[in-house]
Amino acid sequence: MFRNFYAEINGQKKDVLENGELSCAFFASAILHLFQLIKEPHRTVASTIKDMEESGWYKIKKIKPGSVLMWEDLESSDKGEVRKFHKHLGFYIDGDKAVSNSSRLGWPKVHHLTYGIRGGKPVRKIEAIYWHKKLDK
Prior knowledge:
Order of helices and strands: EEHHEEEEEEEEEE
CATH class: Alpha Beta
Strand content: 35-45%
Number of strands: 12
Radius of gyration: 15 Å
Number of domains: 1
Shape: globular
CATH topology: endopeptidase fold (from Nostoc punctiforme)
Distance between the termini: 28 Å
């Protein structure tokens, strides 16, 4: 459901989600939209965060189940090319578990809250935790 989104760019049909590789914002925003917690689904983290903030989402310091998480940018090597990854969105489940779209698999996956610990540090740092008052019910 979250793998493909086609748009016409310079007269060419293009899968802007690249078969699920760039689907984190689409996955998270589609879920939020289904529960009427934002206005519409989005393709980018920046537009999702903007809609969230306009729809009453705010940053919190203490993580709670149901929180929306934004992870830091990462640099990675993909097929021999250095590629800058964008910020990443997902949801906190509980304990040390979160769910977000897996760029490698192309679909949502449950994973460690910070993608694990390496050398005593999180593999991917959480930059922001978002909450909405409707989740208190």
